[in-house]
Input
Amino acid sequence: MTYKRKFAVLSALIGVLALAYILTLVFDREHRRSDNFAWLDSSLANMADRIEISGPQGNINLNRRNNIWVFETAFMELPVRQSRVEDLFAMLSRRAVYPVRATSPDAIERLGLMEGTAHRIRVRGGAGLPLLDLLIGGEDVLGREVYLRMSGRNQIHSGEDNFTSFTNTRPAFWYDLRLFQPFGIDMVQQAEITFPGEETFILRRSRAGWVMQGNESASIVTTRVEAWLRSVIEVHGEDFVPDAPESIEGSIILRLGDGTSRIIETGPPDEQGNRRFIISGSPYVYLFSDWGFNRIFRETSHFID
Output
């Protein structure tokens, strides 16, 4: 009887533990399901027409114009890298686990989620309709997650830090600083380069490769010309500035096979060695460092073997 009694007690204990384990799994799964969500529904992302980001670098305002995102500044709206905005919406619309960590006013202040001090991502649609107003606070002790709170709510969540890569950015992070929309180097039939302080020289495509007009006997290295053309076509500025250069010191003219041209003009260097570039048919003024200038403005000796 003693053995049977011990066996019955042990069986009952095992049964209780098993039930407790099953209930733990069930309730934990339900809890994780309730914490698994996206901050912004993808259908609402399609309605968005304004993004306001506040962070340590200041305020970023992006507007949607004719389905194209632009950067709002005091002097004009500037082109934006559309892929960056797509990455932001993909992050906000991605379902992930954001467990609730606290709900008290003390925790909101302690974790850096107060209005006016937290980093912020606002998404608006229509006539200023708020689609999302997300506050981003401090990091957890391991520095892997950040604390998050919807404006107007007390629940504090935590989640993997994919947010500060968008809030801790300078304006140039968002700019599309390409001088030209992509086109192939095979379209270029002639290049005219006026290097500051020198006369214009012309590279013209020929059957054998390239020749220098007026110096046809010079041995032009085709690979150098084509590598240079690629760098000109793909070049990016380093920032936008409001004012065009007061004078023009150099230019590059690419004449294409379809009869059109692409023209870059540069002003003199400023005290820091930076130059302002203007592009044919574009309202924007680009800032280039000395390194960026030297990358595309090449002297004749660069192309001759």
Q: What stands out?
A: The chain is about 25% helix and 35% strand. Residues 2-35 form the longest helix (34 residues). Confidence is low (pLDDT under 50) at residues 6-33. Residues 37-173 form one domain.
